[in-house]
Amino acid sequence: MKTVIVACRTLQAEIELAMEKTGVRHHIEYIESGLHERPAKLARIVQELLDTIEADRVLLCLGQCGNSMVGIKAGSFEMVLPKVDDCLSLLIGSTKEKSRLSYQDHAFFLTKGWLLGESTIMSQYQKSVEKYGEDTALSIMEMMYEHYNTLGLIDTGTGPMDELYEQTEDVAKLLGLSRKTYPGSVSYIEELLTGPWPEEKFIVKKPFETVKTEDYNGMI
Which of 203, 188, 197, 190 is nearest to 20 (CA)? Predict the structure, then answer.
């Protein structure tokens, strides 16, 4: 049985670790990481890619991401998706646990993959500086992140956390946020790679079926 993984580039390190731990060696097609900020474009790119894939099963390592997966249609293959709102919940373990931690600490979560992506907090700031000047850019950033107190650095076991602390020092200073490490895991990704796929954690679509809004009901 031929299986293909379609995943956000942001999760590359975690997927590689999960594959190492499980021994799975499926072909992977990565999607540009910055697309999670543009759900309509993300949906279009994913569908265009799926339409080119010839396989028996496709594992979509993507969260719901602003409803971008709603309306996605399987080709002549079975399609499996994690039942989570975004990729951060996939790494923390569940949508509810991410929401609980976010509410508890007013945390904005980051991983190394997010810091290496096309669109980061600092790149957003630099673009605003170029367009509006430093004072206005800072005001914009403060407004965007005013509800957060903490930069939540997720330790997924893919590398030293010291590096992540160094890389987020400027962001923390810019926004006046404290930093805190939260335990992450690739176990959800391991389950996606190997199965079985219980309905409380995964959406399983038969060939030519479409992902619906209600498929995400009851996210754990």
Answer: 190
